Amino acid sequence: MLDKIIVGDSIALIKEFPDKFVHAIISDIPYGICYDDWDIIHNNTNTALGGASVAQTEAGNVFKRRGKPLNGWSNSDKKIPLEYQQWCETWAPDWLRVLKPGGSCFIFAGRRYAHRCISALENCGFTFKDMLAWEKETAPHRAQRVSEIYKRRGDEESERKWSGWRVANLRPLFEPVLWFQKPYKTGATLADNILNYEVGAWNEEAMSEYNGRNNFLDEITQSNIIRIATEKSDRGLHETQKPLKLMELLVSLVTTKGAVVLDPFAGSGTTCVAAKNLGRHYIGIEINEKFAQIADERLSQTQMCRPDNDECNNRDFKNNDAHYNIQLRLDSIVG
Ligand SMILES: C[S@@+](CC[C@H](N)C(=O)[O-])C[C@H]1O[C@@H](n2cnc3c(N)ncnc32)[C@H](O)[C@@H]1O
Hints:
Layout: E1 4-7, H1 10-13, E2 22-28, H2 54-59, H3 61-66, H4 80-98, E3 99-108, H5 114-123, E4 127-135, H6 146-153, H7 156-161, E5 174-181, H8 190-197, H9 204-213, E6 225-227, H10 244-254, E7 260-263, H11 270-277, E8 281-286, H12 289-300, H13 315-334
Parallel strand pairs: 1-8, 2-3, 2-7, 4-6, 7-8
Antiparallel strand pairs: 3-5, 4-5
Helix pairs in contact: 4-5, 10-11, 12-13
Bound molecules: S-adenosylmethionine (SAM).
């Protein structure tokens, strides 16, 4: 099972995993915001978000131009956040079970429903440790000027009054990374737990390397705001592909070489590539065969740094080179 991408539903498959088996779970889970088919978590069909509400049908093409309103198109849309939490509660107990005591779990969750994910994991026994912010350099942004609507309606008074006002959000330049920990034995010490399971602390050296690489000043070292840009080689394999350097930082922050890192929503396998690059074992689970194949291809091009023999000099060069080879071959798979 180690060092593989398993194709299938991780919610069912993880039930077969042994207890206290993995040192860390690092995953970019579906945010439940209906970004794509795989991101539709709710069950209600009376909704524009993955279904067909009366309002959507009546709106026709206007709906497509307006996009997805935050407050939904029907009353059942308002249950989506709760349904997201309930979905998180279907897998969180098994994540807790397979993680070693004191082990970390990093979850990328959307800003709108991150609180639901936190409540779900807390309900299932995790400790919510911190929230990191991954700060990006750019993010798509669409915030319509409300005065434009009044202008189109010929309502000059409202157009003047609401000039300079917009709807929708500010530019979404950060993504939360939720940091959970599996509680260690009550009455024991974390220091003993670290000796028993090799998890429970975070690695200062990993942060220093990241700070040094970015020339960050002393006053922001060890900050929980992580600034990592998306490079050219971080694009093109998955719609929500995460930067490899970001995943490497998270892997090296909470695991030692030889540890086992699990990603139950692996996508194009970025977490697993990061783990392999850094001499950790990995298990990726991905339900979509196309993405699983992409992840396999990436991993077959990635050289593992053996725990006892770190030969990964020039790693960045190797990764970029591998990315372009894979990209050429995957163009046909992705279609
Ligand atoms: C947000 S994406 C991960 C992208 C990843 N960070 C990357 O860099 O490529 C989440 C992935 O979870 C997969 N997925 C959704 N439900 C799943 C399930 N029950 N079991 C396994 N994978 C699932 C989706 O197909 C999607 O590729």
